[in-house]
Amino acid sequence: MTEISRASLLRAAGVTAAAAAAATIAGPGPAAAAPVGRPREHPNVSLIRKYYEAYGKGDLQALRTRFFARDITWTIPGHHPLAGTKEGPDEVLAFFKALGRAGFKAETIFLAADGDWVVDLHRGWSTNPEGLDITWALAFRVEEGRIAEAVNYPGDQHAADAYFWKVFPLADLPDRLHPQARG
Questions:
Q1: H helices then E strands: how many in the chain?
Q2: What is the pTM of this model?
């Protein structure tokens, strides 16, 4: 009997998972393909594409009125000043304004949907100051044609934490403890 190593099992599982993912993304065979010139796209993928267009233009009003649910939550993992779950459009847009000050840009690489969820893979980078350029994944949950939840996954959490600490440092003490004293 041949002994199977953990490494070879994981490699095989990775290949199997990659093949399954590719088959799922590719969809059914050629007989069920969409007509030429009219690709089929999940409506939630279309929503997220349009969201990125508005985000790219800095159109925060469109984000609020056309894309965000009233009770949206947006989770930013990490150990930095911008980390945490933002609740409601005001908090999410405040986070986006902070990203705007850092000149953040996003370029979509891949979008896929399954039911109410859209998975997004994109390049996200900073321009003011430069210093962060990584791949990010977002999981969007869509309800009634609006983004109800987003969870952001940086490809390099350590780089994201270091960048955000550099760009968004905490206020000095005692101002941090007594924000009303700032005047």
A1: 5, 6
A2: 0.73
